[in-house]
Amino acid sequence: MMASSSEKARHNMVEQQIRPWEVLDQRVLSLMESLPREQFVPEQYQDLAYADIEIPIGRDQHMMFPRIEAKLMQALAIRPTDKVLEVGTGSGYLTACLANLAQQVVSIDINSEFTDRAKQRLEEQGIGNVTLLTGDALAAPIEEAPFDAIAVTGSLPTSQQAEIFRQQLNQDGRLFVVIGTAPVMECVLITRHADKVFQEESILETELAPLINAPAPVEFEF
């Protein structure tokens, strides 16, 4: 049977964008080659669903590059029994990916427009293991905490400002967050080994828009 144009585009995305970035986790590769990303993209950008760009989704927000989404999932090493928190629902695409890897996903976004759209898109894909919340994840811990993995889809100026998320991790829980200010940012994996013992590992350098309501970076005066 001849592959559809979307199937070819997904295959090309995996082979040309994701594998070259040293994403070798077969669960992640298979998922991104099968999940219809175009169903989570605004209609006017559906032809760009598999392009190597950050697709606008409204309210000055964008989908992450596919390669960064893949790096995030590989770094978090999500298990089928995991409970996962996603901070920043956005289009719902990464939410759907996480839901396919984990047992349960809680996804929160400050924009109700995004959570409403994501709910519809997830239902259309038959994905039912997601709880969608509307609110500010920086304001208070999530009621469903603790989590085995947390994915933060906006950047924070410093590692210390990720404390609210660190404290919502189970032991051996993993947190993926982008730390820094443009043009110097890096993806960091933070693992909780004990109550007050955390390990930080740099994954790669990138740039990502700040999480809404993230503290402003401190400016030094000389």
Note down, in words, how this protein is organized:
There is one protein chain. By secondary structure, the chain is α/β, with parallel strands linked by helices. It has one domain (5-205): Rossmann fold, CATH 3.40.50. The chain is built from 6 helices and 9 strands; from the N terminus they run ααββαβαβαββαβββ. It has helices spanning 5-18, 26-34, 66-76, 93-101, 112-124, 163-166, and strands at residues 56-58, 61-62, 83-87, 104-109, 130-134, 147-156, 169-181, 184-194, 197-205. Strands 5-4-3-6-7-8-9 form a 7-stranded mixed sheet, with helices on one face. Strands 1-2 form a two-stranded antiparallel ribbon. Strand 4, helix 5 and strand 5 form a beta-alpha-beta unit. Helix 1 (5-18) runs antiparallel to helix 2 (26-34) and helix 1 (5-18) crosses helix 3 (66-76). The longest helix has 14 residues, at 5-18. The chain is globular. The protein starts with a helix and ends in a 17-residue tail after the last strand.
Structural class by SSE content: alpha/beta
What's the total number of strands?
Answer: 9
Q: In CATH terms, what is the architecture?
A: 3-Layer(aba) Sandwich
The best one-word shape is globular
CATH class descriptor name: Alpha Beta
Q: How would you sum up the major sheet? A: 7 strands, mixed
Helix content: 25-40%
Using the coordinates shown, work out and report the CATH topology.
Rossmann fold
Strand content: 25-35%
Low-confidence blocks of residues: none
Mean pLDDT: 95
Helical segment count: 6
CATH superfamily: Vaccinia Virus protein VP39
